[in-house]
């Protein structure tokens, strides 16, 4: 049985102030552009058997921040996230498979109305009680997806060959959840 040692069963709430949902994509074949989403919410419904743990994380796509306002506006537009028609992307956790704190979070990513199974390579960083008495659990996770599989297909050919934006997008997560109220007292 897979366990989340120290996490009591119940609904744990994502702490957006201590969470980062980031991504990177190869630009012009020679460098990477990185970004984060600043508006994220979610919960993790922890079960005795981690394989039965479920949850939902919601990201507001308009909150994308790549440290370049012009690029951010382009990425929010119809060629990429199309935030007018798809204001959110979600990740539905369907199970957790960990051994000695490492393994996989299984789930479904929905982006631009397309849902695909996406597994996250995950490290469970443990549980701690902070200076204010709140019980917290932390995870680091990553995966790589294909933009095309989610109908994010805009690109531009480069004069020297290749394309402006790679199809592969790396997603990196550092997330923190707080325990159900009854567990943190």
TrEMBL record:
Stretches assigned to the Lipid/polyisoprenoid-binding YceI-like domain: 11-178
Family membership: Belongs to the UPF0312 family.
Protein name from the UniProt record: Lipid/polyisoprenoid-binding YceI-like domain-containing protein
